[in-house]
Every structure is written in C-alpha cells, then in structure tokens.
Amino acid sequence: MKPLLNFLASLGLVASTVSGVSGCAVLVIGAAVGTAVYLEGDLESHLNTDIYGAVNATNLASQDLQLVPVSRTGDANEALLIATDAEGRKVSVKLKPAGNRVTQINIRVGAGGNEGASRRVLAQIEKRVKG
C-alpha cells in the first residue's frame, strides 16, 4: 500500500508543477484517479458501485471467464474471491468499500502477478458493473 501512496503523492507533485505551467492540475489528477494501477503484482482500481454490486459483478465475471471458485468469503467490510483460471493460475479478487457507492478492487493472477490477465479480469468485472 505504501508504494501506492508514494505514487499518488508524486502525482500531486506533478499536478502542482503542471498547474503552474498550464492550469491543468485537476485534469491530471482526475485522469490518474480513474485509472487502474499495477504495482508489485497487484492491479488496484475502483468500481462505481457498493460492495454488494461489486461482489455480484465479480461472481458473474468469474463465470464469464470460466474461473473455478476455490473460496468465497465476505461481509459488508471486505470480500475475497479465490479461484483458478484455465491455465491453473490462482486468481485473487479482493473488494473493500472505499466511499459512497465506490469499491476498491485488488486483483492478482498467479503467484508473481500477471498484469495482462489481471486487466482482463478487471475489464470483465467493470463490464458486469455497468450491466
């Protein structure tokens, strides 16, 4: 989590530098907040739904992607799906409330992480959130 905070802090520094030059600080920060960040094997993003909608979208997306569930745990504060993909890799999707109708999502595919596979999982979950 610390690398993410450092990343976000550096965005603030870049934004303040850019705003002094072109007045675009809000645009730079806004673009970064809506983006998925891949750090140390984990893909982190935010979904525009509460945790219950995020859990539902994750379950539907896991079926779409033919992931085989190993375990599902959760409550109103956190949910975790552990599954296996067609290549036998462990897929972990962690969900946490991050505000009013916003859920933080962390995805890891494989022991060391796989960015492309993680982004495919995220894209399918986002598709299911949008309906």
How would you sum up this structure, described in words?
It is globular and about 35 Å long. With 131 residues, the chain is an alpha+beta fold. Helix 1 packs antiparallel against helix 2 and helix 3 packs across helix 4. It is built from four helices and six strands; from the N terminus they run ααββαββββα. The chain has a six-stranded antiparallel beta sheet with strand order 1-2-6-5-4-3, with helices on one face. The protein folds into two domains: 35 residues; 93 residues, TATA-Binding Protein, CATH 3.30.310.10. The N terminus is likely disordered.
* Gyration radius from CA atoms, angstroms: 16 Å
- By CATH, the architecture of the largest domain is named 2-Layer Sandwich
Q: How many strands, which pairing sense, and closed or not: the largest β-sheet?
A: 6 strands, antiparallel
Instruction: Write out the CATH superfamily name of the largest domain.
Output: TATA-Binding Protein
Mean pLDDT: 82
Strand order in the largest sheet? 1-2-6-5-4-3
- Determine the fraction of residues in helical runs and give it as a percent range: 40-55%
Unreliable runs: 1-33
Strand content: 25-35%
Summarize the structure in short.
It contains 4 helices and 6 strands; from the N terminus they run ααββαββββα. It is an alpha+beta fold. The two termini are 30 Å apart.
List the helices and strands and how they pair.
Blueprint: H1 2-22, H2 25-33, E1 37-39, E2 42-47, H3 51-64, E3 68-74, E4 79-84, E5 90-99, E6 102-109, H4 115-130
Helix pairs in contact: 1-2, 3-4
Features:
single chain; 131 residues; alpha+beta; TATA-Binding Protein; 2 domains; 6-stranded antiparallel β-sheet; disordered N terminus
